[in-house]
Amino acid sequence: MEMNEAIFSELFAISERAKERAKKREKKRSMYFELEAQLPKSKAMHCIAGLRGVGKTVVMLQLANLFENSIYTSSEELLLRSVSFYDFINYCKKKGFVNIFLDEVHLYSNWPLELKAAFDEEGAKITFSGSSALALREGSADLSRRVVFHFLPPLSFREYLLLKYNVVLPKVSVEDLVDFDKRKALITAIAPYANRVDDYLAYGALPFSLEEENSQPLYEGILSKIVRLDLAHLKKIDVNHVESVYKLLGFIATSSPDKISYNSIANALNKNMYVVMEIIRLLNEIGLLMCILSKGGSGKTTRKEYKLLLLPPFRSVISRLRSAEVQKGALREEFFVNHVGAGNVKYIKTDRKRRTPDYVYKNWVFEVGGMTKDKKGGDYVVADGLPIDVEKIPLALFGLLY
Questions:
Q1: H or E element that contains 101
Q2: Local structure of residue 161 (DSSP, 8 states)
Q3: How far is CA 267 from CA 262, 275, 276, 349, in A?
Q4: Contacts for 357 with CB less than 8 Å, ≥ 6 apart
Q5: Is pLDDT at 303 greater than 60 in this prediction?
Q6: Contact 253, 318 (CB under 8 A)
Q7: Where are the domains of the chain?
Q8: Longest C-alpha distance within the chain, in Å?
Q9: By CB neighbour count within 10 A (0-12 exposed, 13-18 middle, 19+ buried), where does 208 fall?
Q10: Strands 125-130 and 45-49
Q11: Of 392, 394, 369, which is closest to residue 379 (Cα–Cα)?
Q12: H/E segment holding residue 151
């Protein structure tokens, strides 16, 4: 169907309603301010990638309200009307709308070529989003150097406190946390709010949960869309594997991380190793799983079997869905790894008889655990509570890393 005035008018009305709703969200995530500074002077397209539900749409709408002559639409709206990105963008330009925001482009099969064609004709600033960073990068190979990528993670604990409680705490680095003098000052600052880590891990890592008394049904809906829609658009998950994806997620969510192996998953699912590895790869691509490489005792990377953690708060969500007890130790590790970055750490893997610290970050080795945990030969314990101890860093402080 060709773009026409009737379709444009309807899409414009939808855009204005969405932008108006976004004006009520006065608090903004860090990425908004990054893009606020970059977009006016940038000649490239900008892509916001991140898991469904992390707040990409709100950031885009807040940015759309920043610019005159802006319009927002979702690929779902265009698909319903059988309108191409290329035709939509060209029609917007003719109407004087030159700041164009396109949401969830990965749902549209031919998006890279159409965005390339529209961008090369110039006359519009294009910002778009999608739910898989890797899929967007692979799909945009035809866009060459035309795109600047931005990854939007779940809310940090710091952002959670800001958006839910209007608490302003500083952004810090791991270097700040290992400096004992700086750490003591940060402990004083976070002390009134450190007990809210449990709430954050239970419900609070995705923005929509901040306004809901019971966000469990919403999380279950997000999970269903990730498994049934987003993974399908990565192509390789068909209807026959949907049940296996749910079983795999349930197995990980209700198991201790150190008890999980590819073999144990394959046995639980009654599937071969190839299927298990492919599902893990796709869940990592989409951002629901955090896959951490291992290091041997010598510091060399060992066999390529990842330690598997879930993005907060999905361990809590899936455990509640299955009426299972939540693994407290796993929640601590997921809090730590999410804030430090799964790609920035490695876990230590040796024989089972030897007690080893959990994670290596740069030149430091961190053991993540409870208040009574010891270093096991590492440098620091990342502990519950607010220990004021040279060798123990409160877990909550890692929530200030972004």
A1: strand 99-103
A2: H
A3: 9, 12, 10, 22
A4: 348, 365, 366, 367, 375, 376, 377, 378, 379
A5: no
A6: yes
A7: 5-151, 157-400
A8: 71
A9: middle
A10: parallel
A11: 392
A12: strand 147-151
Amino acid at 277: M
The tokens describing 204, both together, are: 């609070």
pLDDT number for residue 135: 64
**Dist. CA 164–CA 269, nearest whole Å:** 39
Structure tokens at 50: 């991140």
Least confident of 97-106, 128-137, 222-231, 337-346: 128-137
Its pTM stands at 0.89
Query: What are the structure tokens assigned to 173, written together?
Result: 């680095």
CATH (residue range 5-151): 3.40.50.300
Contact 358, 333 (CB under 8 A): yes
**How far is residue 331's CA from residue 316's CA, in Å, rounded to a whole number?**
8
Model pLDDT for residues 168-205, shown as the tens digit of each residue: 999 999 999 999 999 999 999 999 999 999 999 999 99
Q: How many CA atoms lie within 13 A of 153 on its CB side?
A: 23
Residue type, 6: A
| Alpha carbons 163 and 159: distance in angstroms, whole number | 6
Whose structure tokens read 């005792």? 297
Tokens 């969510």, residue located: 253
Residue 115 main-chain phi, psi, to 5 deg: -65, -40
Return the structure tokens found at 398.
Answer: 């890692």
Report residue 56 as tokens. 């990409």
Of 298 and 174, more confident: 174
